[in-house]
User: Fold Aspartokinase from Parashewanella spongiae.
Amino acid sequence: MSIISKKLVIAKFGGTSVADYPSMLNCARIVLSNPFTRLVVVSASSGVTNLLVELTQAHVNDERRVQLLKNIAQIQYSIIDNLPQSQHLLALIDSLLNHMSVLSESLILNRSKEVMDELLSIGEQCSSILFNEVLKQQGEYSQVFDARKVMRTNDQFGAAEPDINDIFRLCQSELLPSLNNTRFVTQGFIGANEQGRTTTLGRGGSDYSAALLAEALNATTLEIWTDVAGIYTTDPRLAANAKPIKEISFSEAAEMATFGAKILHPATILPAVRKNIEVFVGSSKQPESSGTWIRTQVNNAPVYRAVAVRRDQTLLNLHSLKMLHAQGFLAETFASLARHKISVDLITTSEVNVALTLDKTGSDSSGQQLLNDALIQELEHHCNVKIEDSLALVAIIGNNIPNTTGVCQQVFDSLSEFNIRMSSQGASQHNMCILVAEKDAAAVVQTLHRDLFEGLS
Ligand code: ASP
Ligand code: MG
Assistant:
């Protein structure tokens, strides 16, 4: 019986996990310790995508451009230095680095989104080749698989949307049959449109790539290896008493990914839920320390599971007397937002006002802000627009929140010292959200964690 008909594990390694040679070696050990891990998805080495994004920016002068190219090359060469000397490998990486240089030059004349995506894809292309070499150095006959052969997307360069049906079809024909005999290393973050042009899924998109591949290959498990040992009750850098969570449901994890915890790209959960694929999140630096399992069914569903924070929020306050006893105002507003590809997180309404929060970091791969002047002008046609910045969204994540007496009182009592700019609860069983000033965010999270999780109030 073939190995993958029993079990198939997809392992994704984030940028810090493949930052350098020693980190890659840790990952190689993780891969090789599990015979069911047949497909490895990698991010670009830590920092590389940021450097590439800078290369795409219009303001970068020649001197800086050369410096950026050098920095990116250096990260690759420092890994190559630890690998057996191979002309073939050097030629492969050099040709990608040359291509990068040519693309960055062509952007000076023509700021094409398509060229930017081609440029951004170099990070993952390099890391996949290098990680494959590390596996080979450990005696594995693995191969690089070009994700663009299967990760079919639309034409929206910078924030491309995957086509799930095409990805399924392509994975089943181009990738699955070979997985029994060969381990493959592929790139996260990148895809290709129907014409084969390179696209990217947006910053942090490698998790999503891995989940889409897991879905299309009917994998049993998706492992997301990063630099933290799983999901915690809050960010341990904010609250020293944050505790690791052993097991969490998809619904809670989806809220966490959306409302803060940068540990998982928000879209990652969806493909896993669709196919009921269990997801493991752990640290490649300490694979033996337990990590978090995300599953449909969990043994324990506490009211308070975690507190997450998402900074850099913008509050859009829309005011119009037309709203008074009228219909269609929200439809018009949301149609404008949708045309500009903006998704709204929180919303509260009064008779003549609507307040919406938007994620300022909700930008495309090359960092272009979505809340632009054109959209604001469009909204101003039918209402007054006020924009507030420097806000943070704090989410209390758990179970049965709207049906548990006393939650609001406990949260608001705990935060009596802080101004709560907006709050939202009741829509989801799994979260209650409050909007606070950015400057209060850390203290709000610490206070809530102390009062709701440490039982010391
Ligand atoms: N390398 C890409 C980024 O930094 C994708 C990823 O790491 O998930 O955004
Ligand atoms: Mg990343």
The pocket of aspartic acid (ligand 1) is lined by residues 14-15, 43-44, 49, 123, 188-189, 203-206 (CB under 6 Å). The mean pLDDT is 92.
